[in-house]
Amino acid sequence: MKTLGKKIRLLRHQKSWSQEDVAKQLEISIPAFSKIETGITDINLSRLEQISKLFEMTVVQLLTFNDKEGQESYNTEVDSLTLKLHEREMELIDLQKKIIELYEELRAFRK
Which residues does the UniProt record annotate as the domain HTH cro/C1-type (predicted)? Predict the structure, then answer.
């Protein structure tokens, strides 16, 4: 069941949902959902159906979900977000430079 739990966690991450979000939708506690993801708790068929509907999949799709495909999608998303973060950091550095330049102009103007 650990593999299924990893698949569920990967799907949850792809949707950017927290454990709390999923637990609420399943109407279970966060610790109970955490035990599903970690494979501590075996999932009965009705819970499996509930989880598959939540992720808009059939039970068969959920059980046969390819970890590598999901991981590649997850990695692509992480790479994209990392690039956006780098771009924002560069924008921030440029703005900081402009503030320093304006401050120095203001100081020179006051003298």
Answer: 8-62
Domain-by-domain residue ranges, the chain? 1-65, 66-111
Q: How far apart are CA 2 and CA 23, in angstroms?
A: 18
pTM, to two decimals: 0.57
14-59 tens-digit pLDDT: 999 999 999 999 999 999 999 999 989 889 999 999 999 999 998 9
Query: Which pLDDT does position 42 carry in this prediction?
Result: 87
